[in-house]
Amino acid sequence: MSDPRQTIHAGSQLRSLMKQGTVVAPGAFNALVACAVARAGFSACYISGGASANVAGYPDVGLITMSEITRTIREISDASGLPVIADADTGFGEVECAIRAVVEYERAGAAALHIEDQVFPKRCGHLDGKEIISAQAMADKISAMVKHRLSPDFVIIARTDARAIEGMEGTIRRANLYREAGADVIFPEGLSDSSEFKAFTQASPGHSLANMTEFGKTQHISAAEFGALGYSIVIFPLSLMRIAMNAVEEGLDCLKKQGSLESMLPKMQTRKDLYSLLGYTPGTQWNFPRSRG
């Protein structure tokens, strides 16, 4: 783990939260955002592979490396103190790569990771034209990851993108095979509405994760509704980044037209609020986040 003083495994924290109810995990695309997620009272956060690629200037086509993601995991886990669920795309390769991913993610401080059954290079789960590997090949990855995780508390989430290719029947068949292989949670990607999400949990009992992303194939469903449908985790992977980037473009437009950002001051985070979020008081010694009481 990233902090040897931590006595409770992050995965154990996440498992406990899932027992208590539906875990809502906003997407944090950097450590400062993760601090805000924690300050807002959320009990977990999510690191999207797509968001991680986007902030580096890339599309979501599998270009981000394992080392880049593990650095982000360390920063977000340390800064926020929250259990982190992290995207591992297709596991960065075949079985051996997936084994390394589970070890490196856990060492970096993640509570959980998810891998998907797409063919590399992958595509955003809400785009057309995806291809998927065989169900057995994915099950082999999952069973190997389960065997090699450092702690049984670490949560392994299996995502299936079969909905657009094999329909609901194929999605459910794969989900149940992945559960048999040892996945702790199943993430059915690209379902369209509440009826499909309900049909999934009824046909594949156990912990499930719902992806509430905007501008995709899924209608807007609230976290409470997902909870009622039987979902243990709901992620909002890109929502905060989309809000932030819209504000960035608004600010740039203002600066270009007016030559000043004075009119935007009411929309800005103040220096005082930034320092508060960071736990920093000028003139005093700043303590590492995990050591703050």
> Percent of residues in helical segments?
40-55%
Shape: globular
Order of helices and strands: HEHEHHEHEHEHEHEHEHH
Instruction: Give the N-to-C terminal Cα separation.
Output: 19 Å
- Average pLDDT for all residues: 92
What fraction of the residues are assigned to beta strands by DSSP? 5-15%
The strand line-up of the biggest sheet is: 2-3-4-5-6
**SS elements, strand count:** 8
CATH architecture of the largest domain: Alpha-Beta Barrel
- Domain count: 2
The CATH topology of the largest domain corresponds to TIM Barrel
Poorly predicted tracts of residues: 1-5
Class of secondary structure makeup: alpha/beta
Rg of Cα set: 19 Å
Number of helices: 11
The CATH superfamily of the largest domain is: Phosphoenolpyruvate-binding domains
Question: Largest sheet, described in full?
Answer: 5 strands, parallel
Descriptive account of the structure:
This protein is of the alpha/beta class. The chain folds into two domains: 10-237, Phosphoenolpyruvate-binding domains (TIM Barrel); 245-281, no CATH class. It has eleven helices and eight strands. Helix 2 (31-39) runs parallel beside helix 4, helix 4 runs parallel beside helix 5 (95-108) and helix 5 (95-108) crosses helix 6. The radius of gyration is 19 Å and the shape is globular.
